Amino acid sequence: MTETPATPAHPWPHVFEPGDPGTPVLLLLHGTGGSEHDLLPLAPRLSPGAGILSPRGPVSENGMNRWFRRLREGVFDTADVVARAGELAGFLGWAREAYGLGDRPVAAVGFSNGANIALATALLHPGELDRVVAFSGMYPLDAHPVDTDLAGTRVALFNGAEDPMAPQDSVERLTAVLQSHGADVERATHPGGHGITADDVTAAALWIGRAGVVR
Asked: Which DSSP symbol is given to 42?
């Protein structure tokens, strides 16, 4: 595993591993309070041999790493979400050039806050990110307009039916917005709350193998 610290080329600390030829690159996006190392153990379970690109969220909330600011629990600073989604799209564009990824498929895998920034980026910048596995994610853009064409975008949503941090009405809205703009959406709901279950991982691995690497 190659860990790349902050450099003048890009200020986000991140981990990059090229993986095996012919595999996708998994863009791993941690949850609140996590780091670029949190989701690394998940990668081989989702796509053995895949490349790994795992950055650290650039926002600090009381010392916890996040991807964007929030006003309070469950209430996002939408303007910051939009700005940070642009930054993540820029990071991905930078990584494609810096690491010679070319048109190699990239699938974002995010948990909680990481899922939300992945979803926001896919909604606003589908040219940079059009494959998302979102664990415990929700609709991240509130009233901000979405006018992108998401035909060709594929999203897999894994949520808990009793998750107070990602309520089902927000997941329903997310699904409706994605589909109304042409995205292909698959959903799986487990009976628990906020988290990633073993069944979620198994289903996500099948989804990546089926949809995440095919353009």
From this structure: G
Q: Annotated catalytic residue: which of 10, 144, 181, 194?
A: 194
Question: Whole-angstrom Cα distance, residue 178 to residue 119?
Answer: 9
Among left, alpha and beta (phi > 0; psi -120 to 50; other), residue 74 is left
- Gap between the Cα atoms of 141 and 177, Å rounded: 10
Bridge partners of 60, per DSSP, are 65
Catalytic residue among 112, 125, 130, 190: 112
pTM of the model: 0.94
The helix/strand count (H/E) of the chain reads as 5, 12
Residue 7 pLDDT level (bands cut at 50, 70, 90): very low
Give CA angle at 108 (20, 95), nearest 5°.
65
DSSP state letters, 122-153: HHH-TTT--EEEEES-----TT-------TT-
Q: Which domains does the chain have, with CATH numbers?
A: 11-212 (3.40.50.1820)
161-207 confidence digits (pLDDT tens): 999 999 999 999 999 999 999 999 999 999 999 999 999 999 999 99
Quick one: tokens of 9? 């080329």
> Active-site residue among 38, 130, 163, 200?
163
Q: Confirm whether 163 is a catalytic residue.
A: yes
